[in-house]
Write a structure and sequence with these properties.
Length: 99
């Protein structure tokens, strides 16, 4: 079974390319709150790597991926497993097609 994760994390932001601005305006910039979804292809003590696009083989195992993102764990707000394939099939999400 392929487990998909919803990862909520903070990212750096700023530099809106709108020219010079007063410092009072610059200091109001906040980090961006980001949501990324995909399979977890790697995790270590410092990072988690999520891949949103995958190719499954005939055994429903991940064979290839694209558009991976490495997120420092210090930036993580949450990391949760999304619904499983079986739950989607039970609720008709696949419109009768096999995953």
């Amino acid at each position: 079974m392929v487990e998909f994760y919803k990862v909520v994390w903070l990212d750096a932001s700023g530099g809106g390319n709108i020219g010079w601005r007063p410092l009072e305006e610059l200091i109001t910039t906040k980090p961006a709150r980001v949501v990324s979804c995909g399979i977890k292809i790697h995790e270590d003590e410092l990072t988690i790597t999520i891949c949103p696009h995958v190719i499954l083989n005939s055994n429903n195992e991940v064979e290839q991926g694209d558009a991976e993102i490495v997120i420092p764990k210090q930036w993580l707000l949450s990391c949760n497993i999304l619904n499983t394939e079986t739950e989607h099939q039970q609720h008709g999400v696949n419109n009768g097609r096999s995953i």
